[in-house]
Amino acid sequence: MADAALRLKSLVEQLIGVPLPVRIRAWDGSQAGPPGVPTLVVRNRRAVRRLLWRPGELGLARAWVSGDLDIEGDLYAVLELIAGLVWERGEDARSLAQAARDPEVRAAARGLVKLAGLPLPPAPPREEVRRARSHLHTKRSDRRAISHHYDVGNDFYEIVLGPSMVYSCAYWEDGGTLEDAQRDKLELVSRKLALTPGQRLLDVGCGWGSMAVHAAREHGVSVVGITLSQEQAAFARKRVADEGLTDRVEIRVQDYRDVADGPYDAISSIGMAEHVGAERYLEYARDLYRLLKPGGRLLNHQIARRPQGDESAYNVDEFIDAYVFPDGELAPVGSTVTQLERAGFEVRDVESIREHYALTLRRWVVNLEAEWGRAVKLTSAGRARVWRLYMAASALAFERNRIGVNQVLAVRPPETGRSGLPLRARTWN
């Protein structure tokens, strides 16, 4: 066979009903598709079998992570070109069901089966997580999910995140560095919380200790940082000791549901609430409300998705759920605000910084690509490929307004009803 690329291109186009916007190079060396565009490299028949057994995003992800599928050219350009096929078409379940009944579509599927060889489902890459849905967001399942994502190795995260070791959206100015932008984000959070010397701050999901160290060093507060990751905690404790802040910063391996030493003057939750889950979110909000003193402030920094027609359905990205954030869930910002207020908070400010996350992710991709060989040695080729795809695709999702990120400032109202915020609230800007 010397025409696998042309046959593959023709069959896929017959299946999806539109021309493929990328060039294909198949395992036999043949090529097909428009010239001058990035090339999708189909290294073997197994890649086709992966797509047949799991059409859509997860099948593509399995082929990519395993190395059965690769890209020659700009990764962002390829993702832009196929975004409409993977995202928009993948969401239209009715049109997909109708297409499956079309005789031409069924004939194309049979042709792909013949081209792929024996139609046995290939085993998923070892980087994929498989678990029972019935245990979502118990303390045990949350520990496993956090360990899968964060206990990859601190050295690997240092490659991606850089010296700041902040794993959340930075706050950019034109011409600034990633480190500048992350410092400015931590300072923005500190100003929104109005941190002053002598206060107690609870940092929920403290990561590698960046917010805890910044708040203690720059604002003189005492900080308790909690995480479920053993590796994060070890790194953060060393960082605290190196900064000479052990008298002001305590890092705990602890679930937010087990914190019992409130009240705190302020609480920061930066990039953590995505792990909570819709079923537990009101509980999360009530726990933070309980831990905050009257008049205290909460800064909840959280990724949001766009509202959908059926908000009762379990909304999850298959690739991210299987390879990146097991059990992670995104909610619309309106749902987050509603749950916080149901718990008793008064929401005082919501700031969208969506474009800032796209810039942050693109910079992380540059960091990873610059030390690709070392990243592979520290983890695995599959894990490094997961991260490259996840961060690049997420950058485009933020740029295309498919997802956003918001800082929600809320107050636990005192009995007097006075929030303690200035009349012109956005003085932190």
Tell me about this structure:
The structure is a single chain. This protein has 429 residues and is α/β, with parallel strands linked by helices. α11 links the parallel β6 and β7 (249-253). It has two domains: 4-116, no CATH class; 135-428, 3-Layer(aba) Sandwich (Rossmann fold). The radius of gyration is 24 Å and the shape is elongated. It is built from 17 helices and eleven strands. The strands form two sheets. A seven-stranded mixed sheet has the order 7-6-5-8-9-11-10. A four-stranded mixed sheet has the order 2-1-3-4. Helix content is 46%, strand content 15%. The protein starts with a helix and ends in an 18-residue tail after the last strand.
Quick rundown:
By secondary structure, the protein is of the alpha/beta class.
Annotation keywords:
429 residues, alpha/beta, Rossmann fold, seven-stranded mixed beta sheet, four-stranded mixed beta sheet, 17 helices, 11 strands, 46% helix
